[in-house]
Amino acid sequence: MNPFVFLIDILFQLYATALLIRVLLQMVGADFYNPVSQFIVKITNPPVIPMRKIIPGFAGIDVATLLLAFIVLAIKAMIIYQTIEPLSIGVIALGETLVLIISIFLYSIIIQAILSWVNPDPYNPAVSLLNTLTYPILKHFRKMIPPMSGIDISSFFAIITLLFVQYSVRYIFASVFGINI
Q1: 58 DSSP β-pair partners
Q2: Nearest to 165 by CA among 115, 80, 102, 74
Q3: What sign has the CA pseudo-torsion 45, 48, 54, 57?
Q4: CA atoms 121, 19, 23, 72: torsion sign
Q5: pLDDT tens digits, one per residue of 115-139
Q6: pLDDT score at 1
Q7: Where are the domains of the chain?
Q8: Per 3-state DSSP, what percentage of the chain is helix, strand, and coil (rounded to 5)?
Q9: I want to staple 51 with a disulfide (CB 3.0 to 4.6 A). Which of 3, 64, 165, 181 is the partner?
Q10: What is the pLDDT, as a whole number, of residue 48?
């Protein structure tokens, strides 16, 4: 792989991740006075504020920021795949956006599960944010799978489910559109 392609891929992916984390934190009602949230807001504000003047939110979803993440991933696809065909770029960006959202939840749950082994300070800003972000997914698994002998294994099943969904999205995009994301 060309090292410049790798660098472009990482930089665009990181910024799209920050944008999508911002959207997800807003959707779950995270505390935006949290230092980690403030960091995400500060690095994403420059392009988000002008976009919000043009594109309003809808049903509690920050559409402007979501669209901006899609655009970032579309630009990345144009550079990496060296194509300007709008349909191809749109499909690639859509697939990468879906996979990235699933990845954010997946890694958040993995990090939270690992942190639970060391019993971190519950007032730590990062731990608090992880709890807020993963709660909407984990609450469903915790209803179905109660703790056994004081051990919560719901995270394990949430991780398996998210991996299944992620592989399914990748499989669909590969088999239907012929695009590996």
Answers
A1: 61
A2: 102
A3: negative
A4: negative
A5: 888 877 878 888 999 999 999 999 9
A6: 67
A7: 3-177
A8: 80, 0, 20
A9: 64
A10: 96
Map tokens 């592989």 to a residue.
167
- The continuous run of DSSP H or E covering 103 comes out as helix 86-118
Question: What residue has token string 């992620």?
Answer: 166
Q: State pTM to two decimals.
A: 0.92
CA distances from 117 to 56, 94, 123, 140, 181 (A): 42, 35, 16, 21, 33
Pick the residue with more confidence: 89 or 2?
89
- Residue type at 83 in one-letter notation: T
Residue 99: CB partners within 8 Å, gap ≥ 6?
166, 169, 170, 181
- Are the CB atoms for 22 and 104 separated by under 8 Å? no
Q: What is the pLDDT of residues 18-33, one digit of tens each?
A: 999 999 999 999 998 9
- Please give the C-alpha separations between residue 112 and each of 22, 58, 93, 108, 154, in angstroms, as whole numbers: 18, 30, 28, 6, 12
Structure-block tokens of residue 166: 């992620």
Pair of tokens at residue 69: 């993440």
Q: Which helix (H) or strand (E) holds 129?
A: helix 125-144
